């Protein structure tokens, strides 16, 4: 099964699904068939039949969650504080033009230099998102912009224009 954002289930969601399987095991123990279990628990018949087969073969223990699936990230949990601090310093601290900002390729390169582990832009984005970062674009302002004149226009001219 594929999940949006490639994230899979959280621990809370896995626990909830495990609880549903345990409820199914209780119903199986009462001699209720998989089609009725599927209807009662609002799951697919395919899942109910699969749970029934596992329950018959190994009991309730066979319906326990197997935990996280997939390969573990090469980004170690103890490493996660360092990139956050480095990103706060800005790209200029690492030799890039401050105006261009951070890109995924730059962040991946900074991590690779420090930890000797290369990540693709997609992997880098996943790591940053897990760390709480969000995509942000700088506000592009004209170099000739006069804030005082903009404020004056907004205060005096805009109310007249807005009436029309």
UniProtKB/TrEMBL annotation:
<feature type="domain" description="Winged helix-turn helix">
    <location>
        <begin position="101"/>
        <end position="156"/>
    </location>
</feature>
<protein>
    <submittedName>
        <fullName>Transposase</fullName>
    </submittedName>
</protein>
<dbReference type="InterPro" id="IPR009057">
    <property type="entry name" value="Homeodomain-like_sf"/>
</dbReference>
<dbReference type="InterPro" id="IPR025959">
    <property type="entry name" value="Winged_HTH_dom"/>
</dbReference>
<dbReference type="Pfam" id="PF13592">
    <property type="entry name" value="HTH_33"/>
</dbReference>
<dbReference type="Pfam" id="PF13384">
    <property type="entry name" value="HTH_23"/>
</dbReference>
